[in-house]
Amino acid sequence: MAEPILALRGLSKSFGALKATDDVSLDLRPGEIHALIGPNGAGKSTLIGQIAGSVVPDAGEVWLGGRQITGLSVAARARAGLARSFQVSSLAMEVSARVNVRLAAQGRAGGTYRLWGSASRDSRLAAAAEAALARVGLEARADIPVAELSHGERRLAEMACALALAPRVFLLDEPMAGLGADGTARLTALLDGLRHEAPILLVEHDMDAVFRLADRISVLVYGRVILTGTPDEIRASREVREAYLGEEA
Ligand SMILES: Nc1ncnc2c1ncn2[C@@H]1O[C@H](COP(=O)(O)OP(=O)(O)OP(=O)(O)O)[C@@H](O)[C@H]1O
């Protein structure tokens, strides 16, 4: 079996007496979409925070490509190849998607704004930005201020920013939230192809999207992974149905 690109080992985080995540271990393998599902308050966002570096775990380790990154800052993890997006919009609203995506590409290449970037470097970054915009299908809307884009288009612009980072892993926290049927269909098609560029850890409440996209699903309940399996295995589990899926399964 392929080595995992992202490996979580025994991640725990308590807030006072509440164990938000409790000894969570899971792997993200090359080419896969691994969905993390669970009821409200199960600890999904806390887990994503521990992976991305915004939440400091009480115990446990995060490994990326065979390197332990548990002690690294959010920025250092992003540079190491973790692209987190969604839930909180990170786009600059007053400028275009193209400018946002170019800034993301520039951040990846050299940190902050540089006045005198070399011409070849600039054209490389511009090409990376154009490729990302094309990949999400936003070329025709790329010069409109983000504030004037639809909600679904903003999600695609955020994905283009993440793509411009050429990440090793995508961490997506409820990307379908607030999208209509068209937006969900567009984003589902995009994510479906994206898994081959970098594997995706997907936190999502939209069960149709999860069961359509996921290669494997982990079910988190009260901070613990009660089962990891294929969509069919998750559907067939009585424990999961009782704990979470109810009549939806
Ligand atoms: N900073 C914090 N301080 C105190 N409690 C917190 C904090 N962050 C999260 N919690 C609590 O930890 C538990 C897990 O929350 P978390 O947001 O990780 O769950 P979730 O599975 O992402 O939920 P949802 O599906 O509603 O987004 C909840 O009971 C929440 O109230």
TrEMBL record:
Residues 6-247 form the ABC transporter domain. Coiled coil: none annotated. GO terms for molecular function: ATP binding; ATP hydrolysis activity. GO terms for cellular component: plasma membrane. The keyword ATP-binding applies. The keyword Nucleotide-binding applies. SMART domains: AAA. It comes from the Bacteria. Signal peptide: none annotated. Keywords: ATP-binding, Nucleotide-binding, Transport. SUPFAM superfamilies: P-loop containing nucleoside triphosphate hydrolases (SSF52540). Pfam families: ABC_tran, BCA_ABC_TP_C. This is ATP-binding cassette domain-containing protein. It comes from Thermohalobaculum xanthum. The lineage of its organism: Bacteria, Pseudomonadati, Pseudomonadota, Alphaproteobacteria, Rhodobacterales.
